[in-house]
């Protein structure tokens, strides 16, 4: 599998990474696959590694994900670039406990990347928090500092702050906001980019048809893409992974069949030019649809 440099970290990451939220907890639209058992999770992780994926993304907040990864890696830890996340906090004891708990579950002495797990509008540059994180970095708990962010303004501020080696951002055929500012700015600062929400929590799959009437605006937008005649997950991944300034995109799945499909899409290369042009001509949805955390309840 093709690999790209993750900004100034110098880490070479596979163009497709394994996102593990669905391994550790219930996530996604109704109809998503159920959480795997520990043996099923181990087989999925091993399948990803055997296929050339070398970056696993998890978080303290992802239920059993870290424990499943730790059990699955065993002697293969050296093959993997590990990312985990810690919630934003000025409480040094809470930060230390979170990181040390992650290391224990992951069965490793360090993670390659520690990301701040930001919420929409949350400040990521508290001097007290950063000072403590740097102290933990100096102890060898993690190698590089990143942040998982929401929205263009927060991403731009994080890049320009100089504190972060890499960022995780939302990017999809529907959420193309990073194309206007982030993709041009990040390389100038040496900040590597990781894309999440490529399927927009499952909205860019056939499951969009089962969304309730309160989601009519989102459903209509996805239905328009569905008319292009390319399976929605293929459309989504081929579009996102073709962006040259993106180091890697997360394959968020707990299903081995779905993983194999995403691996195949990663090998197909960019979409036809006319399809890309059509996608880019479509007006963007409002932030209340591009951020699943703001979706209507139910």
Sheet having the most strands: 8 strands, parallel, barrel
The number of E-state strands comes to: 10
Strand content: 15-25%
The N- and C-terminal alpha carbons lie at a distance of 39 Å
Relevant CATH superfamily? NADP-dependent oxidoreductase domain
Strand order of the largest sheet: 3-4-5-6-7-8-9-10
CATH architecture: Alpha-Beta Barrel
Helices and strands, in order, run as: EEEHHEHEHEHEHEHEHHEHHH
Assigned CATH class:
Alpha Beta
List low-pLDDT spans: none
Q: Number of helical runs?
A: 12
User: Which radius of gyration do the C-alpha atoms yield?
Assistant: 18 Å
Task: Predict the CATH topology.
Answer: TIM Barrel
- Specify the helix fraction band: 25-40%
Number of domains: 1
Mean pLDDT, rounded to whole units?
A: 94
Task: Give the structural class.
Answer: alpha/beta
Shape: globular
């Amino acid at each position: 599998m093709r690999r790209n440099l993750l900004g100034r970290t110098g880490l070479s990451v596979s163009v497709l990474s394994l996102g593990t939220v669905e391994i550790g907890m219930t996530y996604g639209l109704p109809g998503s696959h159920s959480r795997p058992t520990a043996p099923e999770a181990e087989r999925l992780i091993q399948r990803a590694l055997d296929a050339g994926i070398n970056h696993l993304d998890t978080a303290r907040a992802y239920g059993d994900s870290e424990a499943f990864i730790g059990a699955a890696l065993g002697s293969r830890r050296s093959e993997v670039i590990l990312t985990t996340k810690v919630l934003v906090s000025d409480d040094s004891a809470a930060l230390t406990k979170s990181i040390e708990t992650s290391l224990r579950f992951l069965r490793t002495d360090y993670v390659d990347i520690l990301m701040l797990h930001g919420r929409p509008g949350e400040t990521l540059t508290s001097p007290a928090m950063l000072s403590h994180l740097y102290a933990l970095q100096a102890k060898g708990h993690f190698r590089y500092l990143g942040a998982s962010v929401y929205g263009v303004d927060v991403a731009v501020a994080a890049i320009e702050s100089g504190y972060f080696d890499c960022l995780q951002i939302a990017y999809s055929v529907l959420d193309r906001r990073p194309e206007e500012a982030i993709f041009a700015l990040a390389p100038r600062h040496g900040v590597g980019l990781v894309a999440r929400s490529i399927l927009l929590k499952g909205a860019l799959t056939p499951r969009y048809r089962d969304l309730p009437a309160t989601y009519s605006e989102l459903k209509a937008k996805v239905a328009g893409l569905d008319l292009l005649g390319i399976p929605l997950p293929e459309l989504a991944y081929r579009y996102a992974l073709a962006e040259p300034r993106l180091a890697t995109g997360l394959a968020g799945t707990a299903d081995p069949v779905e993983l194999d499909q995403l691996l195949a899409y990663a090998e197909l290369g960019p979409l036809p030019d006319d399809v890309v042009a059509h996608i880019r001509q479509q007006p963007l949805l409002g932030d209340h649809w591009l951020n699943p955390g703001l979706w209507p309840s139910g």
